[in-house]
Amino acid sequence: QQPVQSPQAVILREGEDAVINCSSSKALYSVHWYRQKHGEAPVFLMILLKGGEQKGHEKISASFNEKKQQSSLYLTASQLSYSGTYFCGTEIGSGNTPLVFGKGTRLSVIA
Amino acid sequence: NAGVTQTPKFRVLKTGQSMTLLCAQDMNHEYMYWYRQDPGMGLRLIHYSVGEGTTAKGEVPDGYNVSRLKKQNFLLGLESAAPSQTSVYFCASSELAGGYNEQFFGPGTRLTVL
């Protein structure tokens, strides 16, 4: 039931783009994205709901493909501050259930 | 607003000892969660609560108990600690589960069981 994230890790230079994917074997109601910097707590980035609504970060975009049961997080023109581990959390079924988080994608942005 | 706070920040236990982790939130959220985070494993849900006086099991509940006697507090107990419980524990809260309700995380408790 745990969603699968890919890639596991990626290294970027400042200004480059990255895509992080999150796939589920079950029908999704919502997908949440969080970023965690080393030694800190996860911080909310985005929520994508079945049906197309979204809520979240101004500089980061994401998509949600309900048929493929997957979501992608797009990081464009990356900055050093984007470094961290990105987690997707998935909510299955008709909603109002706790999230199940993926194992994370470690993103390192270098100068 | 303090948000979500956790006590203690660090703890070292010997095998077989017991302890309680305290989570407090000041956002009047209904839902509260306890996660453990191990290297390469992501965040795994231990127990959660949908309101004062209610608790439910998550993905990895064995060896832990919880209580939510007051809406703002969620306690995680280890009755007899084992080395496999060495981990970083995060508490989180949200207004409701999933949907449009983001989770707010506490700073974490790093627990080592020797």
Describe it for me?
The complex is a heterodimer of chains A (111) and B (114). With 111 residues, chain A is mostly beta strands. Chain A contains no helices and eleven strands. In chain A, strands 2, 4, 5, 6, 9, 10 and 11 form a seven-stranded mixed β-sheet that branches. In chain A, strand 4 (28-36) and strand 5 (43-49) form a beta hairpin. Chain A is globular and about 45 Å long. In chain B, the strands form two sheets. In chain B, strands 2, 4, 5, 6, 9, 10 and 11 form a seven-stranded mixed β-sheet that branches. Chain B has a four-stranded antiparallel β-sheet with strand order 1-3-8-7, with no helix packed on it. In chain B, strand 5 and strand 6 form a beta hairpin. Chain B is globular and about 40 Å long. The interface between A and B is medium-sized, with 27 and 24 residues.
Which keywords apply here?
heterodimer; A: 111 residues; mainly beta; seven-stranded mixed sheet; four-stranded antiparallel sheet; 0% helix; B: 114 residues
Q: Give the overall average pLDDT of chain B.
A: 95
Structural class of chain A: mainly beta
Shape of chain B: globular
Low-confidence stretches of chain B: none
Give the H and E element order of chain B.
EEEEEEEEEEE
Major beta-sheet overview of chain A: 7 strands, mixed
Number of E-state strands of chain B: 11
Estimate the helix proportion of chain A, in percent.
under 10%
